[in-house]
Amino acid sequence: MAIIACNNLSIAFGASQVLRGVDLDITKGERLCITGRNGSGKSTLLGLIAGDLDPDEGNIWRSPGIRITTLEQTLPLGTKASVYDAIALAFKDTGNLLASYHHLLGEINQSTFGQEQQDQLARLQEAIDHAGGWSFDHKIQGILDRFKLDGTRSLDQLSGGWLRRVAIARSLVVEPDVWLLDEPTNHLDIPTITWLESELVTFDGTIVFVTHDRQLMQAVATSIIDLDRGKLSRFDCDYKTFVERRAHQLEIEQAHNREFDKQLQKEEAWIRKGIEARRTRNEGRVRALQSMRAERQKRRISKNLKLEVDAGNRSGNIVKELEQVTKSYEETPVIKDLDLIIMRGDRIGILGPNGAGKSTLLKLMLGQIQPDSGHVKTGTRLEIAYFDQIRDQINPQQTVADTIAEGREYVSINGKDTHVVTWLNNFLFTPEQSRAPVRVLSGGEKNRLLLAKLFSLPANLLVMDEPTNDLDIESLELLEELLLDYKGTVLLVTHDRSFLDNVVSSLLVFEGDGIVTEYVGGYTDWIEAGGSFDRWNKKRKEPQVTQDNSKHQKRTKQKLERELASLPEKIEAIEQLIATLYEEMAASSFYESPVSEQREVHARLSKARAEQVDLYARWEELEQQG
After folding, report:
1. Does residue 282 have a pLDDT over 70?
2. Do the strands 231-235 and 223-228 form a parallel or antiparallel pair, or are they unpaired?
3. Cα–Cα nearest to 311, from 345, 341, 342
4. pTM for the complete prediction?
5. Pair 310, 358: CB distance under 8 Å
6. How is 349-404 classified by DSSP, letter by letter?
7. Cα–Cα distance between 523 and 542 in angstroms, integer?
8. Rounded (10°) angle between helices 473-485 and 443-455
9. Counting C-beta atoms within 10 Å of the first and last residue's C-beta, which end of the chain has fewer, N or C?
10. How far is the C-alpha of 309 from the C-alpha of 411, rounded, in Å?
11. For the segment 28-59, what is each residue's pLDDT rounded down to a tens digit?
12. Which has the closest alpha carbon to 65: 175, 143, 173?
């Protein structure tokens, strides 16, 4: 039975029709992945489901009382606000009360904490009591523990991956029935992505998500929603089966298009006769031709990215040689005693968590920084194109064409002049887009522009730091084909596991404590050989990925049963403590005691009442689950 039903949805932004007459039923427990090209309307559909957008036509029915929460693409801003504050925002006004209460409670032992602060603490406690907010505090503390987050840390102290973890915690703390996620793996490294996979698979609710991570889609999705030219197609299968079915569907469509084009050619030849058309006054046939032209215009053009690379001159056999290379920061080893030889034609992926030292290794190879000890030797006739450097060269005020050709009309590729508009067209940019400023491009379009810039340079060594960010799946697959055909050497940093499997011939894996080990093959080959990030997970105190969900569920059930059995005794103990504290406060001598002792009793009572509410809420929750 559907818990959300979308009927005949249409929406346009300006002249761009994003969705046309879309129908979609979402049932309880489904995990739906929305796929499609950049700009096809994936985020728009999520916004409509969430109620953040209204359709131009059609309607959306949501089951009464349903809780829907969204994990946005945008990370929380790095501000002085604490992690607790950021998560408490999920509860809006009550969350603000809780955040203020916790800040004030943290100051209770400071010398500046006087009667005014004590009165404010009492007012906040009363307001939270009235709003029933202590149960919210219990949920916040629970999610902090579950995600291994320190609630007192400020957001500006966190990396992008930890900020994403905070955002995920904030979206889950409200215990949603439907969880909407838009590109949840952005800014995450592979250990955190695998952790997120386990969270998604074990989530007890409905998930609708958008991702370009093909392994995440395969592991999580129970159905695939494909958006193409404003239309929606549903495939109730896993991602690999979807790819096979879609390929078959495209073959049928192409066969239909060939027959359609033959008929269109006949009609075009007829209309060009002119005189005959006017003499027969076959207005119906003219209108039919106009309709065919419109359909032809709407048809998806299966443009391939013609990513020809200027491979430059042939380099020497040895591209880079590292001998006993060591690099440390603040006495912490990042790379220790690394011996490595990179040969011409190698395609090497560099793998490790955020902060492991992947970019440091690239900079050592490129000579941008020097090792503390050891030597880096460079082969002969080396011409390098560095993707990360090109990011810094992009001027948002410059036009797309000038970014590539710097005011010229032509670029030279393998000794041949190619018009800049033609070159950009190979990367799916229209002539109109080539004249537009860079600032109006989407994230995926900017990344394609970076690739167009990179591949216009003569190079026999491509160094690519996270080139897959924001690329849709079609562009990812085409980029993979390019790199497989490329005759030079490739050094690649990416957290896209499928991309590593499909492109690299070997991996350099950061295994912790400065150890970097080379493995033959891609990511899956490394995993099958026993590779893991256990050392990093223990170091970062992150939850381990559960490989056997059935065992995990059994252990979880046993744990919950033990917790339920222990609750009556805990409730009785906390109620006795509350009664004792009230008796103490009722005594005439209480207000004659020092202010510091009064504060301590108030704080103990506040904490005990909050714990009482939490214990009753948890008891009810576990009873319902049983």
Report:
1. no
2. antiparallel
3. 345
4. 0.71
5. no
6. EEE--TTSSHHHHHHHHHTSS--SEEEEEE-SS--EEEHHHHHHH--TTSBHHHHH
7. 21
8. 10
9. N
10. 12
11. 999 999 998 877 889 899 999 999 999 999 99
12. 175
Q: Is the pLDDT of residue 621 over 50?
A: yes
The candidate with the shortest Cα–Cα distance to 345, out of 458, 481, 463, 490, is: 490
For residues 210 and 185, give the distance between their C-alpha atoms in angstroms, rounded to a whole number.
10
pLDDT in tens, 151-202: 888 888 887 778 888 889 999 999 999 999 998 887 788 888 888 898 899 9
Structural tokens at position 347: 């395609």
The CA distance from 602 to 412, in Å, is 77
- How many Å apart are CA 363 and CA 370, to the nearest integer? 8
Closest CA to 35 of 245, 279, 251, 196: 245
Q: How far is CA 620 from CA 203, 283, 625, in A?
A: 20, 73, 9
pLDDT tens digits, one per residue of 405-415: 888 888 887 77
Distance between CA atoms of residues 272 and 252, nearest Å: 30
Structure tokens at 425: 């067209």
Residue 180, helix vs strand vs coil = strand
Q: Annotate 109-144 with DSSP letters as a single string.
A: TSTT--HHHHHHHHHHHHHHHHHTTHHHHHHHHHHH
Amino acid occupying residue 509: V
Residue 553 has which token pair?
């569920």
Percent of the chain with pLDDT over 70: 85
